[in-house]
Amino acid sequence: MARPKPKLTLSDDERRKLTTWAGRPKSTQRLALRARIVLACADEPCNTVAAAELGVCNATVGTRRNRFVAKRPDGLVDEPRPGAPRPVTDAEVERVVTRTLETKPENATHWSTRTMAKAAGMSQSAVSRIWRASELKPHLYDTFTLSTDPFFVGKVRDVVGLSLAPPEKAIVLSVDEKSQVQALDRTQPILPMTPGQAERGTHDYVRHGVTSLFAAPNVATGEVIGTCHRRHRHQEFLKFLDHVDATLVKGPGVSVHLVLDNYATHKTPAVKRWLLRHPEYHLHFIPTSSSWLNQVERFFAEITEKCIRRGAFKSVASLEKAIADYPTAHNANPKAFAWVADADAILDRVKRVCERTSDSGH
């Protein structure tokens, strides 16, 4: 005679829990299969039939049936395996994490794995594992700036609105200057890249002068209007405005919106008089200490990384030519930056930073 099988009956709560485990994407494959086995056994008294339906052996179905009857849902979890006990207890882990977050060593600004290991009385590798598991990196340091502009909220909504939903029959330009761009030349020839060896240049350099890049990317198309000037005054800014006005192709009734920072040269009486002569131009100022709202900064980062930083320029003229060539090549296949965060999302994030800062105790 066959060995009698224990009777398996599921309550409504158990059936719902097992169905969730069997179908939830985040369940482990082992747990999902065991849940399906128990559900099949509840509907089919024969282990052989349930095993055939699920593609497992009879012994597996029998084992899962017996363990579920004995321990209910807890029987689906593996028993603790024998082995050496953990060398670091939960209390010790909590002590290291708390000490890392809330204290500093007496003679340093931050903990290292060695100083924390000595203070906590454990090995350096144990501290390193705890920090990695807790995503703690005391050696890293970052900066932040909170704007104190009293009109911060209104300016954020104004500038972000121009990026996400510009007015009809309008051109939106993000305008700024990259000042003091140095024409640096290496003291010895740059060694070219070879297989297994990066391009190399000397660490010392010779200064040949500076220039300032005035740029205005079109927020909608990505095309960039740019020019260089040797000085960085309101006179050069007015020349750049004239250059922008001569370059733009404007139809009748089209307005031009310029997004600017709060640099003094953007607000001089001469600039205001220029705007009176060009009523189709409108200025929008970002909040103070909020250059990340001005998309031209992203263009400056690109041209610095791709054109300026690793270059060797024997004169300011050669630097200005390289800078002028970059927008020309860029405009042959322009691509606008994708602005995705709306004003509410930005203000909510700034609010959370302000709350964390005010509660930090500093």
Summarize the structure in words.
The structure is a single chain. The mean pLDDT is about 85. About 45% of the residues lie in helices and about 15% in strands. Helix 1 crosses helix 2, helix 2 crosses helix 4 and helix 3 crosses helix 4 (about 60-70). The longest helix has 17 residues, at about 315-330. The N and C termini lie far apart (about 80 Å). It has helices spanning about 10-25, 30-45, 45-55, 60-70, 90-100, 115-120, 125-135, 150-165, 235-245, 270-275, 295-310, 315-330, 345-360; strands at about 170-175, 175-185, 205-215, 225-230, 255-260, 280-285. Strand 3 and strand 4 (about 225-230) form a beta hairpin. The chain is elongated. With about 350 residues, it is an alpha/beta fold. The chain folds into 3 domains: about 10-75; about 90-135; about 150-190 and about 200-355, Ribonuclease H-like superfamily/Ribonuclease H (Nucleotidyltransferase, domain 5, 2-Layer Sandwich). It has 13 helices and 6 strands. Strands 1-5-6 form a 3-stranded parallel β-sheet, with helices on one face. A 3-stranded antiparallel β-sheet has the order 2-3-4.
- Rg, Cα atoms, Å: 33 Å
- What's the structural domain tally? 3
CATH superfamily of the largest domain: Ribonuclease H-like superfamily/Ribonuclease H
The shape, in one word, is elongated
Strand content: 5-15%
- Structural class of the secondary structure composition? alpha/beta
CATH topology of the largest domain: Nucleotidyltransferase, domain 5
Largest sheet at a glance? 3 strands, parallel
Q: Could you spell the SSE succession in H and E letters?
A: HHHHHHHHEEEEHEHEHHH
Number of strands: 6
User: How much is the average pLDDT?
Assistant: 87
Q: Quickly count the helices.
A: 13
Question: What spatial order of strands do you see in the largest sheet?
Answer: 1-5-6
Segments where pLDDT lies below 50 for 5+ residues? Answer: none
Indicate the percent of residues in helices.
Answer: 40-55%
* CATH architecture tag of the largest domain: 2-Layer Sandwich
CATH class of the largest domain: Alpha Beta
Distance between the termini: 78 Å
